[in-house]
Amino acid sequence: MENKAILGIGLSILEQLGKEAAAPYYEKNVSLLIKQILDKHNIAYTEDTYGNIIASYQNLNKEHSIPKVAFVSHMDHPGIEILSVENSKIIGKMIGRTSDSIFTEKIPLIIHDSLGQKIIAESTGEQTDSKDEIFITTLEEKLPTLPAFAVFDLPEFLLEDQKILMRACDDLVGCAASLAVLEYLAKENKPGNIQAIFTRAEEAGLVGARLMANDQFLTQETIIISIETSKAIPGGELGKGPIIRAGDALTTFSQKAEALLNFAKANLLRQDKTINIQRQLMDGGVCEATAFILNGYEATGIAFPLAHYHNGLGEPSIQAEFIDVNDFNGGLQLLLETTSVDADQDPPFASRIKSYPVEQAEKLKHP
Questions:
Q1: Which of 78, 175, 197, 363 has the fewest CB atoms within 10 Å, i.e. the most exposed one?
Q2: In what order do the strands lie in the sheet with 53-59?
Q3: Is the CB of residue 243 less than 8 Å from the CB of residue 279?
Q4: 3-state secondary structure of 113
């Protein structure tokens, strides 16, 4: 029953999150909803100086210690910061990379301002003096009050066949996965000792994660699992399961941290041999595990294969992102299983590889 239960929780949370628009530095509405969900299930949380949320689930009613694990996901998505509004002339700046059509075509947008207004607008397609700046015009007789930001006018959440289509799979899917595991554990009163970190301004350069890692907010003993969506590639494909991420465009991740995922995978396969889990170096971008790796942490990652990454980066038009439902379910199962795995064990292959091969050594000495 865990399969259906946690998937239902995850989809419900993801649909709620999809209704809250966010851009780098403008994550307030997503942050508020995450805190509401945590409050509803009596899951403790705090915020650091920068607005990153740190949720904690602790229920150690077993004889052995459950490992300390932190799931890390980010609340923002590529979007447009409104820089100025003068005489109906609106200038915005694209934060995070997307399809270049945002600079050359009329793209439907929704502006969210400091008064809580949602204003229908579009980019004009006119060239500006800066490669990141965008001219915007409103399609209503009102102007935004700064500070304000704009997002693409795309579906918030649609479930079609086996696809989850959203304006911002990246990284609301990661946030929903973390929250679903926490909610499931809390509802079932399961043992565990985990944290879930929800960071800000990842699309502006891993900003929230870098600050948290530099501040050593988490103990060095904490194993970091970055949860992301990542552009589907050969070996990390849609519909073939979540991906145990060996690394990203900058770093190779930690063997000790990945061992936790490999144990969880082995446990799941003993229960259900049909479950699909991939492993791949996903080098299409840099994820938050790198910020922690470079600050001395053991870190690994899970990626959900993603179509139309960043709403069409490298593609000719802006489109909704989508992931596969079964991939999402498999990732939820894998994350849940990590909460009951002993992180201090050697991985399954390690004892054989580390052992001295006496018989084979003699054979090599005396060919």
A1: 363
A2: 44-47, 53-59, 192-199, 69-74, 223-231, 298-306, 243-247, 278-281
A3: yes
A4: strand
Tokens of 136: 């915007």
Going by C-beta distance under 8 Å and a sequence separation of 6 or more, which residues neighbour residue 290? 206, 248, 250, 251, 299
Both structure tokens of 88: 């109906």
Angle between helices 255-271 and 325-338 (to 10 degrees): 110
Provide the 8-state DSSP code for 218: S
Spatial separation of the C-alpha atoms in residues 12 and 229, rounded to whole Å: 18
**Which structure tokens are listed for 93?**
């700046």
User: Does one domain contain both 68 and 177?
Assistant: yes
Q: What is the pLDDT of residues 282-297, one digit of tens each?
A: 998 899 999 999 999 9
Using DSSP's 3-state secondary structure scheme, residue 28 falls into: helix
> Can you list the residues of the chain whose pLDDT is less than 50?
1, 64
Does any domain span residue 118?
Answer: yes
Kindly state whether residues 189 and 67 are assigned to the same domain: yes
